[in-house]
């Protein structure tokens, strides 16, 4: 699995040091100089995780993190700062940061934290059962506790990636989900768009009476240009 990390860091020297360490751990790094453009970059790139440099008063970083979470992106976000103030940590955690590292940071430790967070997020998404109410639609029933799709008492076999995609759609009824949004929720990179098309087409084949004219998974132009 290739991890892509978007780094918001204005200091070129720090970026170069971090890039060298990440390359040894096979983590692809892209750069943003200011948090002000974070949302625009995430919509285009959809990274596996984000590392943000934040220094007092941190208002721009706080606003960027708030907008990111409000938009539905839930990739792990790490904050790197020289501030050791508890209030700064609490505010950023409440806004959706996953980890707060006080600078100077050990780059080996930082890399390990990033890899662990991304791997844990993927396992949680794909493998963990959920104790939540079943969802029914069009004669189908999704059992989140047993991770099964059932129709007329019979189970329809789904791959883990397909169940994760179905769960995402079922949890967001009547909501337009863009490619970057789906990729973020499923911890995918933009390079995996072809496999996303395949998974969507397979789901349509399994649950739609007429996959070319679907009722449940609608073919919005901004979502999919790929025909099943």
TrEMBL record:
InterPro entries, per the entry:
CheY-like_superfamily, OmpR/PhoB-type_DNA-bd, Sig_transdc_resp-reg_C-effctor, Sig_transdc_resp-reg_receiver, WalR-like, WH-like_DNA-bd_sf
Domain Response regulatory, residue spans? 4-118
Q: Which UniProt keywords apply?
A: DNA-binding, Phosphoprotein, Transcription, Transcription regulation, Two-component regulatory system
The residues covered by the OmpR/PhoB-type domain are: 132-228
CDD domains in alphabetical order: trans_reg_C (cd00383)
Q: Is-annotated flag, keyword Signal?
A: no
Q: Which residues bind DNA?
A: 132-228
Where does the record locate the signal sequence feature?
Answer: none
> What's the protein name?
Response regulator transcription factor
Organism of derivation:
Paraburkholderia dipogonis
- Lineage of the organism: Bacteria, Pseudomonadati, Pseudomonadota, Betaproteobacteria, Burkholderiales
